[in-house]
Specification:
Elements (H helix, E strand, L loop, with lengths): L1 E4 L5 H9 L6 H18 L1 H12 L12 H10 L2 H18 L7 E5 L2 E9 L2 E5 L8 H14 L3 E5 L9 H10 L3 E3 L3 H10 L9 E3 L4 H10 L4 E2 L7 E6 L5 H12 L6 E6 L2 H14 L6 H11 E5 L3 H11 L3 E5 L3 H5 L7 E4 L5 H6 L25 E8 L5 H14 L3 H15 L1
Parallel strand pairs: 1-11, 4-5, 4-7, 5-6, 7-8, 9-10, 9-12, 10-11, 12-13
Antiparallel strand pairs: 2-3, 3-14
Length: 431
């Protein structure tokens, strides 16, 4: 891996290049995505079926699009008991965590005025699950369970079935999480169907879940017709390590992130040149045995970097600047640094908390902000599946007290009818 000193002239250039790795020329992609969305809006099921045949090599009739109960039963019968147990354990952990995220309605009285907020779940949510380079049953659990905790009544999952094949563990995860409807469609046509509805698939209010660049662009284009969770970019990890870190652990965690995607990024920031060199050697040692070696190699060579800094305070400063999706504090006293971390999707403390525990069994959703957006985005949570309505109640004897302010403010903005709507009531109250 490239080892670079933070004072090097190339340092900022390298960080900028890594941060912008998810940016691509979208003009050509957007044109094809817009065409598919337009066709689905106009032709409904017909367009969904045609594009599914084109991209997933599967011929469907409208009656074939939905996954039925028998499909779920076959998935259970074909899966290893140990796999089902692992999914069940993960689901229980995710449920336990998200049940603690309480967002409740509230009211208060200010004199005679009643004010408050009503919190309600979204009625229908669509969940996109990838089915390309890899399948992710854990993503099903991480997206679906917070939605169900929030009280979403209709949770719809779309997942591609290339050549008619579906991963049984994805279906089992959906059943465990309480997904209400599953459709064997993917790609842009699935996003369009969820956003606008077809004869077979009623539209939803929000779409969540990761996908390839075409799916990401589709989500971006339908935003406003429906809500979306975020535009996810390539995955990333940043590890802050001191001299107490185990180079083998650090290297393993960097490689675990690199195996996601050729554009995934693994960064180590350390004040120890010795640790930097040892981790580099460990990466070279561990990489050849990985099944996804080619993907990992491209990721490490393209977007992996080791940064040597003067001290841990400088390491924290760099971590906050990069605002990583995953941040590991592989240091002797991680709690001392935790309060200094301002920007990170998920923070993993100590030498025995690898990022993989967050991906699968810790409990918090692993749907996290990427590409530096942890500066203003948060992990997926129960709150993402709720909406809030303000409640305002003024009794007759309170309105005259504020009428003058309203009329003045409306006058500033040239909105005469606003002022009149108050004036007409005050006149009646006083008469």
């Amino acid at each position: 891996m490239k080892i670079i000193d933070y004072k090097s002239p190339d340092f900022k250039k390298e960080i900028k290049r890594i941060r912008e790795r998810g940016e691509v020329d979208l003009e050509e992609i957007e044109a094809s995505v817009k065409k598919i969305i337009s066709d689905v809006r106009k032709l409904g099921d017909k367009a969904v079926i045609e594009y599914t045949k084109k991209y997933d090599a599967i011929s469907l009739a409208p009656s074939d699009m939905r996954v039925m109960e028998d499909d779920i039963k076959r998935a259970y019968s074909s899966a290893a008991k140990e796999d089902i147990d692992a999914l069940q354990h993960s689901a229980e952990r995710i449920l336990a965590f998200h049940k603690r995220q309480k967002f409740e309605s509230w009211t208060y009285e200010d004199g005679g005025i009643q004010l408050g907020q009503i919190v309600r779940p979204l009625a229908a949510v669509g969940m996109y699950v990838p089915g390309g380079k890899a399948t992710y049953p854990s993503t099903v659990l991480m997206n679906a369970i917070p939605a169900k905790v929030a009280g979403v009544e209709r949770l719809v999952m779309t997942v591609p079935a290339p050549r008619g094949e579906m991963n049984p563990n994805v279906l089992i995860a959906a059943a465990i999480a309480g997904v209400d409807e599953i459709y064997k469609i993917g790609g842009v046509q699935a996003i369009a169907a969820l956003a606008f509805g077809t004869e077979t698939i009623p539209k939803v209010d929000k779409i969540v879940g990761p996908g390839n660049i075409y799916v990401a662009v589709a989500k971006k284009l339908v935003f406003g017709y429906v809500d979306i969770d975020m535009i996810a970019g390539p995955s990333e990890i940043l590890i802050v390590a001191d001299e107490t870190a185990d180079p083998a652990f650090v290297a393993a965690d960097m490689l675990s992130q690199a195996e996601h995607d050729e554009r995934a990024s693994a960064i180590l920031v350390t004040p120890s040149k010795k640790i930097a060199e040892a981790v580099d050697k460990e990466i070279a040692k561990q990489l050849p045995s990985l099944k996804r070696k080619e993907i990992v190699e491209k990721s490490i060579n393209g977007y992996g970097i080791i940064i040597v800094v003067k001290d841990l305070m400088e390491a924290v400063r760099i971590a906050n600047e990069i605002a990583p999706e995953h941040l590991e504090l592989s240091v002797e006293n991680p709690d001392e640094l935790l309060g200094l971390i301002k920007n990170a999707g998920a923070i993993f403390l100590g030498h025995y908390t690898p990022e993989a525990v967050g991906d699968y069994v810790a409990g918090p959703s692993h749907t996290l902000p990427t590409g530096g957006t942890a500066r203003f985005f948060s992990p997926l949570s129960v709150e993402d599946f709720l909406k809030r309505s303000s409640v305002i109640s003024y009794p007759a004897d309170e309105l005259p007290r504020v009428a003058g302010y309203i009329e003045r403010l409306a006058g500033m903005e040239g909105l005469e009818a606003h002022a009149k709507s108050v004036r007409i009531r005050v006149k009646k109250i006083r008469n």
